[in-house]
Amino acid sequence: MEFEEGDRVRVEKAGVEYEGIVMPSTTGHIIIKMVSGYNAGIDPEGATVTIVQKKQDMAVSAKPAVKAEIKPKSGLPKVSILSTGGTIASKIDYRTGAVTSQFSADDILQAIPELTEIANFSGKAIYNILSENMKAEYWQELSRAVVEEIKHGADGIIIAHGTDTMMYSAAALSFMIDTPVPIVFVGSQRSADRPSSDNAMNAICAAKVAVSDIAEVTVVMHSDGSDDSCSIHRATKVRKMHTSRRDAFRSINSEPVGSVDYATGEICTYLPYSKRDEKELSLKDSLEPKCALVKFTPGSSPDILGYFIDAGYKGIVIEGTGLGHVSTDWIPQIERATSNNIPVIVTSQCLNGRICDRVYDTGRDILKAGAIEGEDMLPEVALVKMMWTLGQSDDYATVLDILKEDIRCEITERSLE
After folding, report:
1. Out of 87, 236, 362, 389, which one is annotated catalytic?
2. Count of other CB atoms within 10 angstroms of residue 242
3. 163 an active-site residue?
4. Model pLDDT for residues 265-297, shown as the tens digit of each residue
5. N vs C: which end of the chain shows fewer Cβ within 10 Å?
């Protein structure tokens, strides 16, 4: 009998036996997902394959999981988990062999029961998407959902989000919401069915921050490759710096706000922060989505900028070289943009350090053309700030003033070396 994807099989080769569920293969090897959570790829030549159970038989014999009722505990704070999808709420899809977002927010509580010792949780799925599908309009809907949860008595908010664009969403909510309670973004680099998954630790540490005094929008993820602690990153200073490491997130041009010791749950803070109930809850969720982030490369045509100007874009962020430079033939297009009341912010591809367009002639010419120095803002944060600022005012002078102002610690007076 031929085996198919989704069947449970036993493969014997060279005296070694493997058992697991057959997954899609693009190499001609037999790929199986083993009980351990790891995948094994076996060359079929000389291998003996025995079908243990057909996928349709597994579906028939499988009993629906019985979810235990989670009862609230007296005296614990109330925390809302808003799920948008992502790896922290994902598992393997044996149809495609890919990780897909399939869990609801309630499933997170079932999978990580330790959370119920920290707070009384309510869960709501806002989206069920992978984070590359996030849009500005989704940020707006998410921000409104957060505000509603706070109005209804939530002492903290956890947002389960895919890691790839989490820094964009966190920055967006940071600008849009004045919050009296913690708003914590959390994700995981590895899905729950992998032995090295970081989902439980990250979620538990995020819950600790959600009931803490740190009333800001933060991102909580692994501090290093071990399971010792999670860093608490400020939403406007964090970036994903590795594709797959569990400690992929780093604070740029800043220390983290603090860290959470996983073993004890204790929080250590390193920077000043907004404390619980210091701010009145307010929402400014207007955004201008038609803004562009443009990366300058040697020899690239100024027509790139011309395209966005002619296409009716309302704001442009340039990721320049070093101290914030582009070639001289880009400068007339920058001037054309600013002359048409299209603000231009220049940031740096270096990420660490800050812009200074007063050192070289090119930089001075960029400033004369009307561009704004992005200081030490991350390019993606500058983009989100541009979108938010243009949503707050249509007066060009006011827009420029807001873009130059430090709103959410996105601009620091002194960058770290």
Report:
1. 87
2. 11
3. yes
4. 999 999 999 999 999 999 999 999 999 999 999
5. C
* Among 55, 78, 163, 362, the one annotated catalytic: 163
Which residue carries 């800001």 as its tokens?
A: 216
List pLDDT tens digits, range 176-227. Answer: 999 999 999 998 875 555 545 667 889 899 999 999 999 999 999 999 888 8
The reported pTM is: 0.84
Annotation says 240 is catalytic: yes
Tokens found for residue 324: 């914030």
